[in-house]
Amino acid sequence: MKTKTNTQGGRYGRSGLPVEFDGIARNFKDVAALKSFNLHADPGELIVLLGPSGCGKTTALRVLAGLEMPDSGRVTIGNHDVTSLPAAKRNIGMVFQSYSLFPNMTARENVEFGLRVRGQKQSDRTARSNELLELIGLKDQADRYPHQLSGGQQQRVALARALAIKPEVLVLDEPLSALDAKVRSSLRDEIRRIQLELGITTFFVTHDQEEALAIADRIAVMHQGQLEQLDTPLAVYTNPATEFVAEFVGTVNRLPGKVINSNTVEVATVGPINYAYDGAFPSGSQVEVLVRPESIGVRDGGDDTCRVLAKSFLGSTIKLTLLDKSDRLIIVAIPTSEAALVANSETVSLYSRGDALLVKDGAR
Amino acid sequence: MTLNDELLDRSPSPAGDGTSVPEPAGRILRGRRRGWKNVAGTLPFIAYLGVFLAVPAVSVIATAFQDGKGNLTLSNFNEAIHGVYLKSFIASIQLSFVAALVAVVVGLLAALAVSSTSNKIVRSLVTAGSGVFANTGGVPLAFSFVATVGNFGIVTKLLQSAGFDLYSHGFSLYSVTGLAIVYQYFLIPLMILIMLPPIQALRKEWVDASESLGASRSQFWRWIGIPLLAPPIFAAFIVLFTDAFAAYATAQALTSGTIPLVPIQLGALISGNVLAGQTNLGDALGAGMILIVVIAGLIYATIQRRTSKWLR
Amino acid sequence: MVTIAPDITSKPGSANNSSDVLRLGRPFRYIVLTLVGLFFIVPIVSSARFSFLGNHNSFTISAYTQLFGTAQFWSTLFLSAKVGVGTVFLTLLLLIPTVVWVHVRLPKLRRVFEAASLLPLVVPSVVVTLGVITSFRGLPNIIYGTPVILSLEYVVLALPFSYRALDSAVQSIDLKTLVEAGQSLGSGWIKLLRYVLLPNLRGGIIGASILTFAFCLGEFAVASLLSFTTFPVFLVQVGQLAASQAVALSLLALLFTWIPLAVITIVFSQRRAKRSTPVLDDLEIS
Ligand SMILES: Nc1ncnc2c1ncn2[C@@H]1O[C@H](COP(=O)(O)OP(=O)(O)OP(=O)(O)O)[C@@H](O)[C@H]1O
Ligand SMILES: [Mg+2]
Questions:
Q1: Where residue A346 sits, what CATH number does that domain have?
Q2: Cα distances (angstroms) measured from residue A241 to each of A219, A248, A363
Q3: Which of A64, B138, B186, B300 is the most exposed place for a label (fewest CB within 10 A)?
Q4: Which chain C residue's Cα is nearest to B137?
């Protein structure tokens, strides 16, 4: 709903440009990779594309970069329709998953490549590559070849190479997925820092929800070639537009329930839960309720009890896997401070401590 | 000794930064002792190569420097680089060079064409075909070309009946040119076999990256595609060159030993068809052949070091 | 003119590896492949036609019937086959232990040994023959004066093919684990070889054998210069007398070497394909 924008521009005194996908369709033989795909990115914002494998994230980025021509629809950057502009003229910086550095060039030569094809003077190129190698902290490794760099270093160089041409838009397709967890989170923060510093409009694809929630101004959840929801991480998590988004981002429990009044629904095992009523269900209708694990609390005793199947300690929370009397699995996350509640208990009873995510028709 | 040194040289060093940690002396000593034992199982192989390859090769080279009585002399070489022998060296080098060059170009085009089809049948057909034809050669190949474009070959006669006489237009299968064509039959497939892996190792990401960085297609080739393909192309050229240079059977069968090429001349000396002025002239020719192959190898190594420094 | 697209040889898992490597224009592709294809097919077709050519363009199989009726045809073929079998046997005896040893005990020297196996390419076979004459003249006749010397040398000359075939077969199995597993179960080297290595290396052994055998059947330089009338030497003699018989014989020889070679090439590439099925399946979409 609310969109966070960032138009003030970065250290280099440039501000990002708005980007618009307007009704893009792209088919590969009988596969529709994108169908009427719409997305608007505000200047300087970082949008994370999130979605299951094959939902068209890469295709969307490639269409934006000009590496793939859409069958229909328009792409605009700033106020320019770039739909038919070739990739080489779009001035878009791209970072791929891996192996994208030119193996026959050193880190520095890779960074300078975009400037070399633009015919810049060697002295200007060196100045610019120095600046960027410094930005990514690889000045000492400037003369190494890609295979002499670690995976994380290679991706930094790829980022620097993409930034060297002062791109109008930055596009990163799973740039971190080939790296191990630690490098990943530090590089992720670094990318975000640089992106904020430059104020460049950025698209970032990842499979990692945590990464998406951590880095994004807004998350674009895609499903079968279409945009399902575009919103801030918080809103996507707490207020999913569709069942798909609710299921895809985070964990949900699906439980049968009965509508009591315009803002309460009685849910099996858990009891009454608040929900935002949109007038769709009359009182008494049978519904299915989607509830986040952390919206459910546990207490000792009670009559509608669940068996504790497993407890896993996740640091700040404890995840409980429970089985209720009708053999439904329920996942609950409680703060670690409440650990004592389940320390010795084999059974617990549940209550609601937050709103339902979604209520949909047709409980069994 | 050298094997063992190599073994120690490549003892694990922390990857990435290229600095190696000095090892305690005890470990090195133990490593050396174990190293010898490790080599033991390969001694039969090394010995076999020594007896049946190194001994003959070295004896040829050594004999080349001796006269009939075993005295040191350079006169064998003197003879080997004059007259018909000089001519045959030149002809052999020319033939191998041109044949290899043609095969490199044609084979490269074919490999590119094959790599760019998504038709799996064409791909496996060409790969299998190349594997098969690259191992063809020798006598049967010569005769199948005789049947094709020989004096009375099928194609020769077809062209004749169409009003074009190959042989009155300067073509002859039994010449150096003819041989260069026949050699294509095993050189082109060899080139395809050598080039398919490096071509298919060119990554989509490199094209996409260069394009998004503003490079045109030709700039991509200029800065990335060709630099990456050049080393394997050079390597292939050298392999094809030596292959053609050493080939004996096809030329012998096709020309009955009348063509002035080094292997043919050497063969004639061996089978005693030619009255040589000197006993050990053949050995000088043989040494010369080894020398040329070695030079080709050295040129290759030099170029390779220049062109692919990013590989080490 | 030329466009590149992804790498089909890359590991499965990297996402966008479909479609072609180079998007050369369709006409270019067809023209090149057709011309090259013709170059390879025309001689075969011509040979076939030539070998059936009688007087006045009539059709005859007399070239073949005469050949099969010649005693020398069978005796030289038999000699070549004998030499071939001997060479294959020697090759396997020498190379299997070596390759296995290198992989298990000297993995770092694998490249060195591979390079050593290419050394025969440095010395042309004509020169090897000369060297054999000069250096082994003094040896007892039993080795030097009989076709045994051919087998002994063919092992070396076929090494670039045979070694590679075995080496890549060993490379494709997890030899070290197999050996260690075998040893931990207390089996000695002989048993290990018999029950663990040979069954696992069967493909490579068959490949190396076929390549070596094909080499032996076709080798001309060494045999003719050492005055052994093997099959190819006989073929040249025939060629000087009766062209159509020589062509017929060549055609047979080519077919007989091609068929097994084609079989191993296809089998090997299929095995490679099977190992990377996920990628190839992806490719099918494009
Ligand atoms: N070049 C192509 N040829 C054929 N089909 C393609 C091509 N590129 C993409 N597709 C298909 O289009 C659909 C979307 O692909 P895309 O690569 O955009 O997915 P993605 O969301 O990036 O998936 P992943 O998360 O696995 O990277 C998939 O079904 C894919 O198989
Ligand atoms: Mg993708």
A1: 2.40.50.100
A2: 12, 12, 20
A3: B300
A4: C218
